[in-house]
Every structure is written in structure tokens, then in C-alpha cells.
Amino acid sequence: MRIMNFYVDTSVVGGLEDEEFAADSRALWQCFEAGKHRLVLSFHTLRELQQAPDAVRRHVRAVPEQHVIVLVESKEAEELARTYLRRGIVGPGSSSDALHVALATVGRVDAMVSWNFKHIVNLGRIRLFNAVNLELGYTLIEIRSPKEVIAYEE
Questions:
Q1: Are β-strands 111-113 and 143-144 bridged in parallel, bridged antiparallel, or unpaired?
Q2: Pairwise CA distance, residues 27 & 36, whole Å
Q3: What is the maximal distance between C-alpha atoms in the chain?
């Protein structure tokens, strides 16, 4: 199996400490720690995590540096996020979510991973994000929950 780059938003890191999402989040996190896949974060995610309890933030520090990629925000990603907002894919209150999708798109990750079913991991919205991406010359972005990207051993 090839190593994939998975952009995770804050919900996945927080999911490690949430009873409902912990099992699948931990299975994915173990893949990052072992180097089976690379954890892709952004400075945007790291800023959001500054508000999280230390129990959540320590999970990021547990992944070896060589298994982590940190994406820098860019005017390109910010403009793509603004386009998502202008097109009404998400509302103005979800500009952070739009930026996560834009960063993952511009960063050309294998998939964006999130537990945010309302604004991100939502078939209708995924289609709209991808319509904009294709129209502007970007590739399709795979958006999945941790449950969908972890490999289950038999």
C-alpha cells in the first residue's frame, strides 16, 4: 500500500478525545505515528488548535516530524476559499471550513479528512467544492471521514 498524504482539520484531532469519534480517529492517528501515511496540517489548523485543551494538542506532537507536512497559507488558497464562499457552498460563518478545503485542494493531498459532516464531509457540498475546483483548473478533492480512509486489517 502506498503512503498517502491526508490533510486533517481540527475535528479529526479533537475526535481523538471524543468518545463518539475516538476509535476511528485513533486508528488513523496510529497510521500517522507509524509512517503508514503522512499527516498534513496547515498553519490554519495549528492556529485553531491553540484554543484546544493540551490533551488534544499533544496528539499532534506525538506524530514524528518526518511523518508530518505543514502547509503554509497562500493567497491562492485564500482566493479559492473566498470563491467557495461567494458561490454559497458554505456560509460566511464557515469561512474556516472553506479555507481548510482550499488548503487541501491547493496542497494536492490525497484526501482531506474531517468529522465535519455539516459543512465539509457532505456529498452535496463535496460536489460543489469540486465543481469550483474543476472550473478553476484544480483537481478533484477527495473528502472523507477517518472511518473511510483507515485500512482495516483482516
A1: parallel
A2: 11
A3: 45
Provide the residue type at 128 as one letter. Answer: L
Other CB atoms within 10 A of residue 33 CB: 15
The whole-model pTM stands at 0.95
Q: DSSP of 31-83, one letter per residue?
A: HHHHTSSEEEEEHHHHHHHTTS-HHHHHHHHHS-GGGEEEEPP-HHHHHHHHH
Domains of the chain: 5-149 (3.40.50.1010)
Residue 6, amino acid: F
Helix %, strand %, coil % for the chain, to 5?
A: 55, 10, 35
Rounded to whole angstroms, how far apart are CA atoms 145 and 138? 22
Segment 89-137, tens digit of pLDDT: 999 999 999 999 999 999 999 999 999 999 999 999 999 999 999 999 9
